[in-house]
Amino acid sequence: MQHRIGAGVIVEHEGRVLMVRHCKPGVYDFRVAPGGGAIDDEPLADAARREAWEECGLRVEIGPLAYIEEFASPQTRECKFWFTGKLLGGAIDCSAEEAVREHIVEAAWLARGEFAGKTVFPPMLLDDYWRDREHGFIAPRYVGLRQMEFY
């Protein structure tokens, strides 16, 4: 089994959260906040910043660590650190080689109500995030291990 460490960023701007859509017809179609694996000795905050740029074409400022999540598939066990973030600039663009390779077909700002009927990751975005942000993410929260639905 391969082990991986990753980082992602939950960027909220004007009441909407930045999400990328991974779509491989007949296999999966889900939305997730930008994120991915850290490269070599890359600091996790830098990995989250890089992933937002590669997947969305946006520059973001990394804020406090909000969640620590583990997930597993038959081949991979990953620990992912989710940071909060703030939009600095750029224009949404999913044409980077890294985004195309990961079957990212779209990036968009989604309001909480627009998550209905969609498969969304991290799952905290469906409920916990909105409550936790009201308290200012006082401390990172471990959210446990989940089995990956798509791999």
TrEMBL record:
Keyword Acetylation: no
UniProt keyword list: Hydrolase
GO molecular function per UniProt: hydrolase activity
Keyword Acyltransferase among record annotations: no
One protein family per Pfam: NUDIX
InterPro entries per record: NUDIX_hydrolase-like_dom_sf (IPR015797), NUDIX_hydrolase_CS (IPR020084), NUDIX_hydrolase_dom (IPR000086)
Cofactor(s) essential for the protein: Mg(2+)
Domain Nudix hydrolase: 2-132
Domain of life: Bacteria
Protein name: Nudix hydrolase domain-containing protein
